[in-house]
Amino acid sequence: MSPLPPLKALQAFDALGRTGSLARAAADLGVTPGAIGQQLRKLEEAVKARLVEHDGRALRLTPLGATYHAQVRQGFAAFADAAATLRDANADIIVLSCLTTVLGKWIGRRMRDWTELDAQARISLVGSDAEPDLAQGGADLRIYYGGRLHPPHRTELFTDHIVPVCAPALIAGQRLSGPAEILRFPLLHIAWNPRFGANPGWAEWGRLIGAKPPPANLTYGLSGSAIDAALAGQGVVLGQLAFIGPELESGRLVIPFDLRLPLPEPYYLAWNPDSLKKPGARAFHRWLLGEGRAQGLASAPPL
């Protein structure tokens, strides 16, 4: 089987056939006429046939070149049809971007509730710590933390709280006379990305109870990783309540003393207004806001 001609050479040849002029072909592709001529020579070398000829100062297709161009044109038309098919297939997909742990430990766990409400809407969940440009189609909606970003269309979703949690086996058989007793167990620390600001840790929780915690035994860069370590019995972590609901319900994690600290800033939901025109997008937007309100109530200290 003969190798396929270079794609750039075929594009230059197609442009010449469509526009009928070397200069117009160059303008169509945004290159110089010399670059078009070079690609045409590469194409003729690849197919071992004369496809273009000079007609005075102009360049035109040979009869064989015209026949070949008709087939090449069909090929590029097929490429365009394939691209349109992909665009149409993705046109109705609602892309929700979230911080990695927010996706894995919070909203991703709730999506079954959404699908039971509206199975027709097509949702794509993307976990990323990079903030997408909603205006340029980077995503349709974004759940993010803190107020440093100010998208034109956003609303507060909920404020989360942290609380000390651990695997029940870690404190089994131990008599804890007060909150300060927690500090004698291995402490797991979460070091946030500096762009999110300072997160409350063991020092702040210690001030809440009037004690000075020792240095943390292990430090993690992601809240989800620290929570997983607590699940494995490695120590006590100040876990965000939004991220540990199922583990508390199942008893895989327990709260020795329910003394909660709020995060310094809330989570927000931002969106591209044009994206709300997608099928099911407005309903999904309302559902996300409802889930945020419910989480805010669940995370707040008990009355």
Automatic annotation (TrEMBL):
InterPro entries to which the protein is assigned, alphabetical: LysR-type_TF_proteobact-type, LysR_HTH_N, LysR_subst-bd, WH-like_DNA-bd_sf, WH_DNA-bd_sf
UniProt keyword S-adenosyl-L-methionine, yes or no: no
GO biological process, any: DNA-templated transcription
PROSITE patterns: HTH_LYSR
Entry annotated with the keyword DNA-binding: yes
Gene3D superfamilies assigned: Periplasmic binding protein-like II, Winged helix-like DNA-binding domain superfamily/Winged helix DNA-binding domain
MF (Gene Ontology): DNA-binding transcription factor activity; sequence-specific DNA binding
Domain HTH lysR-type: residue ranges: 5-62
Keyword entries, A-Z: DNA-binding, Transcription, Transcription regulation
Family of this protein: Belongs to the LysR transcriptional regulatory family.
Official protein name in the record: LysR family transcriptional regulator
